[in-house]
Specification:
Length: 184
């Protein structure tokens, strides 16, 4: 009868047949690990209600890894910058704050994005108010008033979607240009 081997012994024999990783493969694994760590750090920023101590987070890595983790985190945070919904706008503000913590020299670009976000919010609010006023006028003409109409769902209005899409179309190219500036 042949001798029975444990799973570990079989795996060890296979590993020995494959050989050791080359220096290039080890470096690639380290780089991938740093990229994943950077994405995790960025997600921690986005999920955390309080400000993180970025220096403490980055000091866990050596100088080379720290640079890769920082770069990866910034890239991930830039993808979180969006204008589509109010939740996205809130995440955008958090992402901007996190990017400036990670790389203070990006404050000018981050400030421009913040101003663009504020301008977008104001434009969106103006559209909302116009549609709400229009709804109130229609209801007033129908002699419907009082506490029964505390508010209207503007987003359900057929005019909302095209107006919002037009607004997004006008702001998105500027936002994308600023996001590219953050990555350069």
């Amino acid at each position: 009868m042949s001798e029975l081997k444990s799973a570990w012994e079989i795996a060890q024999e296979r590993a020995n047949r494959l050989g050791k990783l080359s220096a290039e493969e080890i470096e690639q694994q380290e780089r991938e690990k740093c990229l994943q760590s950077g994405r995790a750090l960025a997600q921690k920023f986005l999920d955390s209600p309080q400000q993180l101590d970025i220096d403490a987070e980055l000091n866990q890595y050596d100088e080379k890894a720290r640079s890769l983790v920082r770069r990866s985190a910034i890239e991930y945070l830039v993808t979180a910058i969006a204008l589509a919904k109010s939740q996205s706008v809130n995440k955008t503000k958090i992402a901007i704050r996190a990017i400036t913590s990670l790389k203070p020299e990006l404050q000018a670009e981050a400030r421009e994005i913040d101003q663009l976000v504020q301008e977008f919010e104001q434009s969106e609010q103006k559209i909302r108010e116009e549609l709400e006023n229009k709804h109130r006028e229609v209801l007033h003409q129908l002699r419907i008033s009082g506490t029964a109409i505390a508010g209207t769902n503007v987003e359900a209005d057929p005019e909302w979607q095209p107006a919002h899409q037009k607004l997004l179309a006008s702001f998105t190219p500027r936002l994308n240009a600023l996001k590219q500036a953050l990555l350069s």
